[in-house]
Structure formats: structure tokens, C-alpha cells
Amino acid sequence: MKEFRPIEKFHLNNINNIIIVASGKGGVGKSTVAAVIAISLAKKGFKTGLMDADLYGPSVPTLFNLQNERPISNEKDGKTSIMPFIRAGIKIMSLGFFFNPEQAVIWRGPMVTNAVKQLMNDTEWGKLDYLIIDTPPGTGDILITLVQQFSINGALIVTTPQLISLADVQKSIDLFNAANIKIPVLGIVENMSWFSPSMHPDEKYFLFGKGGGESLSKQFEIPLLAQIPINENICNQCDFGLLEEMLLDYDMSVSFDQVLKSLI
Amino acid sequence: MKEFRPIEKFHLNNINNIIIVASGKGGVGKSTVAAVIAISLAKKGFKTGLMDADLYGPSVPTLFNLQNERPISNEKDGKTSIMPFIRAGIKIMSLGFFFNPEQAVIWRGPMVTNAVKQLMNDTEWGKLDYLIIDTPPGTGDILITLVQQFSINGALIVTTPQLISLADVQKSIDLFNAANIKIPVLGIVENMSWFSPSMHPDEKYFLFGKGGGESLSKQFEIPLLAQIPINENICNQCDFGLLEEMLLDYDMSVSFDQVLKSLI
């Protein structure tokens, strides 16, 4: 049987670790988790970048209050490079910087693929210990391009506890495990695990079900790194570029320390 | 200036109204809303179909407890047609029926496009008053194919109240409004608007922010049809194929009646 010739991969020589944050399902808080991981790594002294590869729904500009910013490009030795923004100590690039927030990106697969490749390669990342990539939901063109054409060191999976989101998440894990891809899945982060109203701190409401992260963890033998509850402040912190505040919450900060242990 | 020749559209002659349920952002409850709209239409006596076009994260099989079912196909006059399942009085087809739930669909754009076209055209819908289409998040290949190649009568937009999801939702509306597409956006459904614990029914927690639906409604002059609160039962109802129970809740049933007024 003839073996497939592996696709030539791009090597980003100055970047030690490229980590994909994926989920299969949208709306599970993947971008928030990716951003807070990047912030936490930077706080620990690692040189960190955050690449938002979710062309159709880029959240990173909003998360860092960069909605109306446009990156500048640099010409050096005949090569154009794009300057990332620096916020909370991390270098930030997003496909969203190149479109008006209200404007639909009506691009089909091949154009999307080129945009991602170009932005990964042409951003002036400098030397990085970690590049965290926030990916779109699903296992479509963008994720396929990233895993086939870049040397990815590992993937983190974000899910809610809900059964209906697990099927989608399993699909992502399946993609990373595929024989011609083989990207180690470092762990599972269960998000929106429960809600405790600040007025009734002893009550726990499992609005998005229960046990999903644990069941995935057993099924695929991947560690469940953390269960992150939802609280009344997260929404505002995300909407108004106040993500760093999230780590002032003790439980939150412990959760993300747990997640970081899988990376460091 | 030369005008673009419009793409030849497929006409599904036996279907009176094809309605797209879209959201831009994943995880806002789009599939649940699409399914409950279909159930409500059937309850009112309309012949209704539900097409799940979310190839990468099909939720409809789980919503109707059809995860392990495979549709049968029929050969008639040399033409193959696929038999939909019938649950809660609606005819149901999903791209998810053709894959194992844990299996990643590693298809790029063109294959996805063909799968959607084939399933729309070859499903034995019979005569329908309404075909409700649940679409994937984003404005990628599947949504582009549906709006360009089928005669869609209208779109419903599902969002959460959160600012960060609004940017993505605006992109979908922008797509429907595009000069060469022009699909009427019938209204906005705000989902997960607040949470009232059953033990404290007077308390309202705005876990996903506030006012997003209203602000979209003003910006695009599209009616805000309903605000649907989250409750402790929805997750189970979705996970275990008990969607019909949702309409036993008085507030829920009133909300969906409001949504239906935009369609009938």
C-alpha cells in the first residue's frame, strides 16, 4: 500500500510551543478560556502570543477591547510583516482585525485557508515560549489547515458539561487523534460547570448538565484539568476587555493554574 | 458594468416556506430554538420538516433521541430518495445521521456543499407548509450554499444577550441583507435571556448580559420576537429527546407563540 506523502509543514522557528484550543461546539467559552490561558502564561513570565483563527466569529478583539483597531504592517528586507497588538503582556493577532465587526465574511474554504496561513506566518511574533491558537467550532477548513500545515505541540479541549455538546467535542478529539495528524490532546477544560448565585453561595445550579467533562476524560483517557463555574461577572469581563479581573477570583485562578500545569 | 448572472436555484416545489434559523455564534441554542419552532408549527397543524444542516456539529439527532438511527433510502423511477424520520409530528433529516457521533467530519468546503445540496434535494419531504433549516454557526460554505442555491423565504436570528455574540450575529444579518442574497430577516429570538432559580422565582440572573436582542433589533429594524429565559430543565430536555415538554412551561409556550406569529 502506498503511503501518503505528508504535507510540507510550516515551521515557525521562533515559537517553542504552539497550542490549539478547540472545542467542536461553539459558545462553550473557548475564546475566553484561550485568552485567560494566554494571560496566565504571561503572568508567569512566559513570552506568549494569542492567535484568533476564528474567521467567522472572532472574539479576541472584543475580549481585549480592540474592536476598532487595525494592525500596522512593516516592510523589512522585502518581506511584509504584521505587527500584533500587545495587551496584558501578550502578543495578539486576530482575523477579526481585518474586517468590520458587522461585516459578514462570505469566504469559502480556499480563501479562508490562505488567510489563516498568511496570518500565522506573517505576524511579527518575535520569540515566543507559547502561541495559543483560538480555533473556530467544528472540524472545518481552518482547523484542518492548522493541524496539517503547522507543527502543533498539543491541543486543549473546552466543553460544557452538556451531553449535546459532547458529541461535537468527540469529533475534535477524533480529528487530533487521526493517524495522519496525531496531535497530543493535553487535557479537557469543562466550562460553565455550574452557577452559584452570589446571594446564595451554597447553592449550585447545573444549568448545562453535569459530568460531561468527566465522561469525556474517561472515554478518551485524557485528564480533566479543571471545572470552571459560571458567575455573574464573567459576561461583563468578556464584553468590556476586563479579562484580567477574572483571575482575581480565587476559584478561577486555581482552575487556570491547574490548566497551566498541562502546558508547562 | 456587467451584472453577475444569478446562480440557478433549486426549487423544492412541494415546500411552501423554507425558513433558515441562523445565529453567527455557536452555542446560543439555535438548534433547540429551531426544533421547538418546528414542533410548535406541527402542533398548530402545519406540515413541517426540520433539516439539520450543521455538518460539523449536528444537534438534531440528540434533540430527538435519534443518535443511533440511520435513514433508509428508496429507489423510485430511477431516483433515489432518503426517508426522513418522523418525531413530534415533524419530518426530520440531519447530516448527522450519516456519521458516527464521535467521528470527525474532516471535509473541506466543496464536499460539504455537495452533501447539503444532496440532502435538501433528495430527502422525501413530501408536501410541506414549512421546512425549518438549522444552520451551522458562522457564514461559511454551508450557509452560503443554502442562501445562494435554494429559494429561502426568510431567516430567524437567534442570539444571547451578550455583546460578544452580537458581533457574530451582525455578520449573519449582513449576509442575509447582501444585495445578491436579499433574504428577509423575520425577527430576532433572544435566548438565555436570564435565569430564575426555581427556589427563588423572583430573582433574575443575567448570566449572559442584558439588552443584546433589543440593541440588534433597533440597529437593524428587525422585530425582537421573544426573550427566552434559561431554566434548570432545558438541558435535560435537550439531552434526552424531551423537547416537547418545554412547551408545557407557560412562559416558554408564550414565547414560542410570539415567534410563530412572524412565520404564519
Task: Provide an overview of this structure.
Chain A has about 260 residues and is α/β, with parallel strands linked by helices. In chain A, about 35% of the residues lie in helices and about 25% in strands. In chain A, α5 (about 165-175) links the parallel β8 and β9. The model of chain A is unreliable at about 1-5 (pLDDT under 50). The interface between A and B is large, with 61 and 61 residues.
Biggest interface, chains and residues, is: A-B, 61 and 61 residues
**Biggest sheet details of chain A:** 8 strands, mixed
Strand order of the largest sheet of chain A: 5-6-2-7-1-8-9-10
* Structural class determined from secondary elements of chain A: alpha/beta
The average pLDDT score of chain A comes to 90
What is the string of SSEs of chain A from the N terminus onward?
Answer: EHEHEEEEHEHEHEHEHHH
The count of DSSP E runs of length 2 or more, i.e. the number of strands of chain A, is: 10
N-to-C span of chain A: 40 Å
Low-confidence stretches of chain A: 1-5
- Cα shape of chain A: globular
Radius of gyration of chain A: 18 Å
Helix content of chain A: 25-40%
Chain oligomer state: homodimer
Number of separate helices of chain A: 9
Percent of residues in beta strands of chain A:
15-25%
